[in-house]
């Protein structure tokens, strides 16, 4: 049985005040769906964080509806989706019983939707264990077990509950949304909890032939296992992810439960990059993709007046600036240099930056008068 493992779409994501829904739609339409047609999977697994927040914008819901129609409706591929910590499990589970009959398995609410999903290939049946992100209290209530204490115990109990419902001898694939101990996080992920108490051990997933994980945005293997893996997020959602590759995992499980899997990249329309240099160097540099989402790391030792607006003449999607102004030691503490600068010197610099010429004598005389008026007003 062939499968595609994807996760962390975060549809409706805000990136420095700009919705990424159009970029997400482009990746899904122009990269993801063509890859689906090339791989021709028997099932697609989406391991949580379908949306970026529990009440997503309408455009994000429309985009997910389009993808469901393309995958399940048009291509007739079963689509198993679990909720992540950004999703509302109740909202995501709406209509789940009816949709399951059509091949769309929306798994979020524990009591209504979390049960093994059995699919069949030429070698027999494969059982999928959906394990959405859940709070400990939810698991205690759903399993009627008040002894469960802590997130890891809750995940372990949920896994054991699902395994008990899977007939003996079936091949088993888990779909989960959790932080596995030892994983490498990114700065765009919302912490599952404060203090790391919701990190879980990889051994929970040892009984499965493959585990499709969501939550960590960098593609990686978990617990040193080749078959416990994060696919990573659909796109780069922070500049801390600038060096990560984004894509999906395409895998196949044979009749004996052996899994082969490989990472397949999805190139975006606009990359997320960091450009570095002085303001002059950035403006004079040849750049093959000036329309990317950029963080400008300015190496100028002094301030650059109105740098963002001026950079956007060449780079329309500069989203943030980072500066490296000169610093000095002051009683053991590092403080920004705040030298007393003559107002006339400041105005001279301003004129040269924005008008490309020094102040005229008439302008200097006018500004000197303004300065004198200010001094008299202060007195």
Describe the structure.
The protein is α/β, with parallel strands linked by helices and 379 residues long. It contains eleven helices and 21 strands. It has helices at residues 21-39, 58-74, 89-92, 96-100, 110-113, 136-143, 151-164, 279-284, 307-314, 343-354, 361-378, and strands at 2-6, 14-15, 18-19, 43-47, 79-82, 104-107, 117-121, 124-131, 171-177, 179-180, 199-200, 210-214, 220-221, 228-230, 247-253, 259-265, 272-277, 293-298, 318-323, 327-330, 333-336. A six-stranded mixed sheet has the order 6-5-4-1-15-16. The longest helix has 19 residues, at 21-39. The protein starts with a strand and ends with a helix.
Notable characteristics:
6-stranded mixed β-sheet, 11 helices, 21 strands, alpha/beta, single chain, elongated, 379 residues, 30% helix
- Principal-axes geometry comes out as elongated
> Mean of the pLDDT scores?
90
Strand order of the largest sheet: 6-5-4-1-15-16
Give the helix proportion (percent range).
25-40%
Helical segment count = 11
- Rg measurement, Å: 27 Å
Strand and helix layout:
Elements lengths: L1 E5 L7 E2 L2 E2 L1 H19 L3 E5 L10 H17 L4 E4 L6 H4 L3 H5 L3 E4 L2 H4 L3 E5 L2 E8 L4 H8 L7 H14 L6 E7 L1 E2 L18 E2 L9 E5 L5 E2 L6 E3 L16 E7 L5 E7 L6 E6 L1 H6 L8 E6 L8 H8 L3 E6 L3 E4 L2 E4 L6 H12 L6 H18 L1
Please give a quick description of this structure.
A hairpin with a 6-residue loop joins strand 13 (220-221) and strand 14 (228-230). The protein has helices at 21-39, 58-74, 89-92, 96-100, 110-113, 136-143, 151-164, 279-284, 307-314, 343-354, 361-378; strands at residues 2-6, 14-15, 18-19, 43-47, 79-82, 104-107, 117-121, 124-131, 171-177, 179-180, 199-200, 210-214, 220-221, 228-230, 247-253, 259-265, 272-277, 293-298, 318-323, 327-330, 333-336.
